[in-house]
Amino acid sequence: ALIAGTNHFQFYQAAYNIYMKEGLIRRALLCTDAGIAFSTDRDQLLFLKACALYKLRKMNSAELVCSMLLAGEKKDSRVLYLMGKIQEARGNLSGALKWTLDASVNSPDNHEYAFAIAEMYFNRGEYSKAQVYYTKALVLDGKDCISFKRRAYIYNRQDNANKAIEDINCALLLRPDDPDLYILMGNIISGYTSESSAEVIPTELMM
């Protein structure tokens, strides 16, 4: 029986969330299948189903469900982003970037999407593009320590030591125990280009 005051979608979503939290992904998947048969919020449950299939590494099935959801005129940014994650899991990094860019265009105020794009560009060695999206990520979330760290690395590559140090200091305020930050600061202060040759510099000498 449904809990009083809830609709079908709320009931199945709650069950899904509980199963997913406990790592019972197959049971969560069964919840979505049952809910799709009864709920009027079919698209929401289809999205949850696609997420469960992705977690189970059933990429073809997850992609099929996402394609169904994207068949309409209105595009859900969450589905676009999930399509990107599916492509990334397959090793199709260009496809992953395309879908994630679409998600970010559709939801420009979403920090997760901006950060994901920055990471993709960073890992591809396209540092100027990565810098743009790390900056966007920081505008959306000023406590994003990783974006500060990555952008400091890029500034250092661009021989912009002052801006690199500014970003490292911001990151240290958020994560004072991160050894990578000390190493990067050591590289900049010492003028080294190899991380392995940098010495750890005490925090009080950096601020």
Structural notes for this entry:
The protein has 207 residues and is mostly helical. Helix content is 71%, strand content 0%. It contains eleven helices and no strands. The chain has helices at residues 8-21, 25-38, 42-55, 59-69, 77-89, 93-106, 111-123, 127-140, 145-157, 161-174, 179-190. α1 (8-21) packs antiparallel against α2, α1 (8-21) runs parallel beside α3 and α7 (111-123) packs antiparallel against α8. The longest helix has 14 residues, at 8-21. The chain starts with 7 loop residues before the first helix and ends in a 17-residue tail after the last helix. The model is unreliable at 1-6 and 193-207 (pLDDT under 50).
- State the end-to-end CA separation: 61 Å
* Nearest-integer average pLDDT: 88
Proportion of β residues? under 5%
Cα shape: elongated
Give a summary of the structure in a few sentences.
This protein has 11 helices and no strands. The protein has 207 residues and is mostly helical.
Explain the layout of strands and helices.
Elements (H helix, E strand, L loop, with lengths): L7 H14 L3 H14 L3 H14 L3 H11 L7 H13 L3 H14 L4 H13 L3 H14 L4 H13 L3 H14 L4 H12 L17
Helix pairs in contact: 1-2, 1-3, 2-3, 3-4, 3-5, 4-5, 5-6, 6-7, 7-8, 8-9, 9-10, 9-11, 10-11
